[in-house]
Amino acid sequence: MSETPVTVLMDALGDASVQVVDLTQSLSERTPVIQLPEQFANTPRLSRRELSRYDDRGPLWAWSVLEVGEHTGTHIDAPIHWISGRDGEDVASIPPRRLFGPAVVVDKTAEVERDPGYLLTAEDLHAHEREHGRIPDGAWLLFRSGWGARADDAEAFLNAGPDGPVTPGPDVAAVRWLATERAIAGFGVETVGTDAGNGATFDPPFPAHNILLGAGVYGLAQLANLSELPATGALLIVAPLKLVGGTGSPARVLALVPAT
Ligand code: MN
After folding, report:
1. How far is the CA of 9 from the centre of ligand 1 (A)?
2. Rounded to whole angstroms, what are the CA distances from 32 to 26, 73, 243?
3. Which CATH number is 124's domain given?
4. Is residue 49 part of a domain?
5. 81 is annotated as an active-site residue
6. Into how many domains does the chain fold?
7. What pLDDT, in 10s, does the model give residues 97-147?
8. Residue of 82, 125, 234, 258 with fewest CB within 10 Å of its CB?
9. How far is the CA of 75 from the centre of ligand 1 (A)?
């Protein structure tokens, strides 16, 4: 077989000089889901109904039916999720090429450790570029916060306080800069959504949703294992359902990382 870029990649996977990192939270009935204020419709957790389990209902097979929100567990936000992107793409319309891109990881774990409501700033992004180079076109900008460590404890993960959830996210200037000054494919986080817990109080409200989805930039939420990625140099692969009309979809998110 003659050598091609794909055979080179397959060889690198074969000898483990390129490794696969799974950035996906396990999806189950226990997976935490966002809690909106009571006046809004809320999404249920995943549930499943068994159709058969090697029994009279199907003697040789087991299968189930799922009820799962589009925005449950590790998932993508399509532009039509937000009113600002309502004329944009649904999940099925996202070009597959956009689902592969350089992963750029901005690590604010220490800041979030000190302040769980930490806001990622435009200056944080500028500082990252000074150290690691320009955010490439088509990149997925990933905000590493350490929040994924809470994913098995819904209370700690959602972190509700008297004034609403206290979770990290980007500020308005960071989001606006990404939308206008760089050509990223998507913005990903470890928390339940791409906006900070107090995102409703911003101008505009929920800026990551409002500005990025309005600009055709996808969201990724509830990522895992971002600590296993380098700041740059990994290839992100996002694989949502090809759901027609979907505003979002649970997704398998993987990264190809050079072995160190
Ligand atoms: Mn979502």
Report:
1. 32
2. 11, 7, 22
3. 3.50.30.50
4. no
5. yes
6. 1
7. 999 999 999 999 999 999 999 999 999 999 999 999 999 999 999 999 999
8. 258
9. 7
Copy the structure tokens of residue 133.
């180079």
Q: What angle do CA 186, 189, 190 make, to 5 degrees?
A: 150
The domain in which residue 203 lies consists of: 5-43+69-258
Pick the catalytic residue: 71, 75, 81, 128?
Answer: 81
52 within a domain of the structure (yes/no) = no
Could you tell me if residue 62 is inside a domain?
no
User: Given the structure tokens 């209370």, which residue do they identify?
Assistant: 155
Q: How far is the CA of 207 from the centre of ligand 1 (A)?
A: 13
Give residue-wise pLDDT tens across range 148-189.
999 999 999 999 999 899 999 999 999 999 999 999 999 999
pTM assigned to the model: 0.96
How many angstroms is it from 231 CA to the middle of ligand 1? 24
CA-based angle 247:249:252, to the nearest 5?
150
The sign of the dihedral angle between the CA atoms of 190, 167, 32, 45 is: negative
